[in-house]
Fold each of these.
Amino acid sequence: MKHIAIYPGSFDPITFGHLDILKRATNLFDKVIVTVAVNHKKSAVFSGDERVALIKECLAGKEWAKNIEVNQFTGLLVNHAQKLNANTLIRGVRQISDFEYEFRMALTNKRLAPDVDTVFLMPDEEFTFISASLVKEIAYWNGDLSSFVPGNVAKSLLKKMETK
């Protein structure tokens, strides 16, 4: 049986922490699907299509990324997972407060789809403080993003902030 995992998130924007977890996941699963959650009730800096394109650019040419797909979805994550025959959800946990929220979500998802498990992965400690909201704040003030996100993401984010 192929082990297919989904790594869901808003990825607005994708950070080095996200990429670290993604790389770790490729060592655990036959296929990893990065799934950009598009929630029209939340305001995002990047559209779903833009986030997918940025992630694909970040993964281009990386040997470890050969079994990764990138897509987007709206709706219940477990429905999307079942549609893609994914049996595992990957969730990144940086700190205790993340775990409390993610634990509740994992239990809810398990109730909705008993055949889909959740695996929690921690990023390398050098990335544990990075969050997309922190990155957006730095970009808003035109700060140096080089230690938080890949160059293509920094460039796109700074360009977006110029128009805000």
Note: The longest strand covers residues 31-37.
Amino acid sequence: MRPQRPIGVFDSGIGGLTVVHALRRLLPSEALVYLGDTARVPYGTKSHDTIVRYTLQMGALLQQHDPKLIVVACNTASAHGLAALQAVSPCPVLGVIAPGAEAASQSNGPVGVIGTLATVASAAYEEAIRRHRPGAVIHSVACPLLVSLAEEGWVDDPITDAVCRRYLNELPFEVKTVVLGCTHYPILKASLSRARPGTTWIDSGEVAAEAVERLLRNGLGFRTESAPGPLRLILTDASSRLREVGERFLGESLGSLELVDL
């Protein structure tokens, strides 16, 4: 039965585990299959054509698990490869940009977006926000160093505070709503908040989980088991620090890991 099938989630690496964390909190009974392209991370510095190719390959790998829905947790893949994957996928495919943009469009005043170089260069958030609020003033800033800081676990460190302040100072003072346009950034929310007090932060993973819940309610169906749904973790490469970093992003033990060849 379709409702019993898993939700597939993929990311360029392990940052998408923050999206899995949000899904596990909101939809604890759902079975999840997570695919992380750790052999080719990061996507954020690669060309449009390469990101599209990787996105299609990852989608094809997830299809082997017969998902009822695929979530593209990677903001960069959502910006560049989502439409191509949606065109060939036999199941619905949801990116993280549309839910984040919709949430941002409901705010008053200008909106800030922080993300990788590729996500910011794509202008995908700007286009998506303006579909909901034409004429919205949007300021985007690429913050490439934040990914490394999140993976190092420097989540409460003066160096991270300084880097966050340096990036966020590029946003005009009147920006009070900022989209976290990278799956790594929620890990650094404490530093980001210290660097820019009084800001409303839109976590693209949290709003994507809410969008998934609406899709299940509106036709895809919920898994009926009352027990917590299983989580299957599949990676394209396993580094020595992967478990340590992955558990920080997921907020729980990773359990067993599987490797897959591209």
Note: Residues 122 and 163 are 23 Å apart (CA to CA).
Amino acid sequence: MMAGAAVLPAGTELPPLAYLVGLAMGTLIVGVLLLLMRPPVRGWDVLALGSWMAVGSALHALHEIGAFPEWLAPLFGAPAVYFTTATVAGAVWLFATVGAAAGIFGSIPRLVGVLGANVAIVFVAFIAWQGVEGGTLEPVWPVVALAGSMVVAAVAFVGLSLTYTEAVAVTGKAGAFVVFGHTLDGLTTAVGIDVLGVEERSPLPEAIMEFSGDLPTAAYIGSGWLFVLVKAAMALLVVSLLADYVRESESRGNLALAGVAAVGFGPGFYNMLLFLVTAGP
């Protein structure tokens, strides 16, 4: 169930060859077109792409609860869902870029973000409705994890601003999103392990929590706390290291931050959605 910060998590399975070829071609075509168009990537663009990360998480959660017909399901397993989402989000980004160049749209990130957010809301609402119909809807722990992640990420980012002000000034919204995304992944993983009794499927998080589980503190605060700290610290380190890259090449640097954010926020949001309909306190 848990996606975690993965080093080949269990459940990773390539789709059939026909799907794999189609996804590869779609991703390649969209990627090449984006390279040719070279849309600017700033802080708001990273947040806009974040809405599509939420869409991808929702699609994978729908796959896990069996919402797709058999012929469509291979597109939304892991890792196929990453390419499916990237292709669709990239196509929307291209559409917004062309429209902005033609003077039809005034803001690329606004269009990309609004479309992504609305699609994500529809999918999340459908997942919640599945929980209502099945009698498994349990919003408490997803809300706790989300609120806790916001607090921890805010404290961590403020701490970074006090020690490395320039990194925060340069990375801005994108840097804050990276820290929040990885904190969300860490905290939802910790909640899953310590509160909901979910089995961790990724080797690296499992090793970290096995270590913290052997500490004397495990009897009082569980084993997930160390993973939360590791995730937050790693996010702060990456933001600090990428600050110079963002300063030298804003678009490429922010695109790198978006990629880093995706591997934290995507799994974290996915965990929240599964908790919403499959796990209770």
Note: The chain has a mean pLDDT of 90.
